[in-house]
TrEMBL record:
PROSITE patterns: LIPOCALIN. CDD domains: lipocalin_MUP-like. Its main location: secreted. Disulfide bonds join 83-176. GO terms for molecular function: pheromone binding; small molecule binding. GO terms for cellular component: extracellular region. It is found in: Secreted. It comes from the Eukaryota. It comes from Rattus norvegicus (Rat). This is Alpha-2u globulin.
């Protein structure tokens, strides 16, 4: 009986472990499926002031337009208490799955993980005047995501050297949702 239970548990672990990886392998991302509306859920950085109130990277995504050789992002940012809309276009680089955009310096980013229908996780490196920092973002198709996905994202941040106190859950803050209508 004990052995049976053990085997059952092992079997389930394999199935669950497999399901979790059902997103995509690096290089076979179907980027078209990222098109559409998104919400910023969690943001993390090893330069915390960038994602704190009034920080340049505390931006709230509304929409991703998948274009031929680029990704168009529409964001809101809160400046002097006002929610302003702005757009950025990130161009594909020569490296598979990598994009580049100028905004508060030079930004290179990749898509780390997505299941297309619920969440997407980005990793970005910013270089500005010889200084560099990392930014990681979790977007959701809905205004919030399960604690499971958030925890998976937090672990990924830690794996990239971003400490837990530099991970900010934006769902508990003003994300300019009222401006979005
Ligand atoms: C952000 O900017 C607003 C408006 O200028 C200001 O009232 C607020 O104190 C700032 N917040 C921080 C954390 O600096």
């Amino acid at each position: 009986m004990k052995l049976l239970l053990l085997l059952l548990c092992l079997g389930l672990t394999l199935v669950c472990g497999h399901a979790e990886e059902a997103s995509f392998e690096r290089g076979n991302l179907d980027v078209d499926k990222l098109n559409g509306d998104w919400f910023s859920i969690v943001v993390a950085s090893d330069k915390r002031e960038k994602i704190e109130e009034n920080g340049s990277m505390r931006v709230f995504v509304q929409h991703i337009d998948v274009l031929e050789n680029s990704l168009g992002f529409t964001f809101r940012i809160k400046e002097n208490g006002v929610c302003t809309e702005f757009s950025l276009v990130a161009d594909k680089t020569a490296k598979d799955g990598e994009y580049f955009v100028e905004y508060d310096g030079e930004n290179t980013f990749t898509i780390l993980k997505t299941d297309y229908d619920n969440y997407v996780m980005f990793h970005l490196v910013n270089v500005n005047n010889g200084e560099t920092f990392q930014l990681m973002e979790l977007y959701g198709r809905t205004k919030d995501l399960s604690s499971d996905i958030k925890e998976k994202f937090a672990k990924l941040c830690v794996a990239h050297g971003i400490t837990r106190d530099n991970i900010i859950d934006l769902t508990k803050t003003d994300r300019c949702l009222q401006a979005r209508g």
